[in-house]
Sequence to fold (434 residues):
Amino acid sequence: MGLSVSYQPQSQEGWITTKLDFLVNWGRANSLWPMPFGTACCAIEFMATAASRFDLARFGMERMSYSPRQADVLICAGRVPFKLAPVIRRIWLQMPQPKWCISMGACASSGGMFDNYAVVQGIDTIIPVDVYVPGCPPRPEGLLYGIRMLQAKVMRERMADTAAREEMEPDPTSHLYIPPPAIDELSEPFGNSVQQTRSGL
Amino acid sequence: MTAPDSVVSPVGETPSAPGPVSPTGVAHRGGPANPSAEAMRVRWPAAVRRVDVVWGETSVVIDPAMLVDIVRWLHDDPEQRYDYLVDVTAVEFRDAQVPLEIVWHLRSLPHRRFLRLKVALVPGSLLEVDSVWSIYRSADWLERECYDMFGIRFRGHPDLRRILMWEQYREGHPLRKDFPLRGRFSRSEQLRQALAANPEAKYSMDELSIADAYEDLPSEMRQRLRAGEATGE
Fold:
C-alpha cells in the first residue's frame, strides 16, 4: 500500500488527465485535515495518535480542523448516541467536497457493545463511511493503518469518475433500495439482546 | 501568612466528628447504625418504617408523606447537618408488593456521616413524590434525571423535564423494568426520529427566554417565544 511515485494508467484516459489526477490526488492524500468527532475512549487513542509519539503530522494531518468547513476527513472516534445523530449528520453536511469519513472503533462502526436504546448502530446508518477501523479502542497503529488506507483510496480517485463525489439521497424507486422495515426484519436475529428484557411485568 | 482555608469545615467546629478511617471487617448486615437513624426514630417515631444497616451503610425507610419535613430537619438540625445531597435515584423491583423505591443519598460533611433515605411507593399509587428542591438546589438535575429514567414525578420541582434523553423522546422511561433494552421502536424508526430532531433545539424555549442572550435571538425565535411555544421543536 505504498504511496511511492508510480504511474499506472487504469483506463484509456489521456496522459494529461491521468497525470493531473495523480497530482491532485497526491496533494489531497497528503494534506488531509481531520475533523475529530471524539465522544468516548477512542478519542483518547486519537489524541495519542496525534501526539508526538505517533505523530499524525507525518501524514500531513498536523492541523486538527475543529471547524467542519475547513476539514477533509471526519474521524468519528467513539459511540454516537441518537441524541448526537443529527449533530454528526449536520457536521458531515457542513464539510465541503471532497470529504471522507473514518469510523474509528467498534462502537462507531457497529454500535459495539452498546446494543441498546440509546446508541446508533453504526454511523454508516447516518453518513457514508470510507474506512472502518476495528478495535475497542483501536491502538494508534490501527488508526494510522486506517488513515494510510484512506490515503491509498484517495490516490485511486479519478476526476472522470464524477459519481465518487455525488451526494445521493435514498431513492425509494430504485431497485437497490431496501425499505427500513425490511432492514429491521433482516437485522433482527443479530445482536445479543433482542429478547433479553422483554418481560410481562 | 494565614493558614489556607479549610475546604470542608473549620477545624474544631464539630469535635464530635471522628476522623476519617478506612473501615475494616464490615459486616454485611448489622453493625453500628448511623446515629442519625436513632435520632430520626426519636424525632419522627411514626414516619420511620425501618432501619437497615448493609455493609456499614444505613438506610432508613420513611413515610413518603413526611419526606420533605424529615429532609428539612436533617438539613437544618445542628446535630445532623446533612448539607450535601449526593444523589436521587430509584430502584424498581420485579415485585408486586414493593414495585418501586426512591432513594436519596445524603452526606453530612461536618459530621462525616452518610445516610440513605428510601421511600417505597404503594402498589397502585401514582408515581409521585415530593421534591426536595426547596431544601437542596442540587436536586434540580438529579430529580430531572430520575424523572427521565423512571417517570417519577416530583411534586414541587420547578422545571421537571427530561435531561438525558431529548425532549421529544417518545419511547418512555428507559430504566423501567418493562422497557426493552433496545427501546420500543424499531431501529429505523429510532433513527428517523433522531435525525428529524433539530440539533439547535437543545434548550427549551423557557430556558431561552430567561437567558441573557434573549435580545440576540433571531426575531423569528423571539416571536415564537412570545407566542408561548413550549419547546424548541
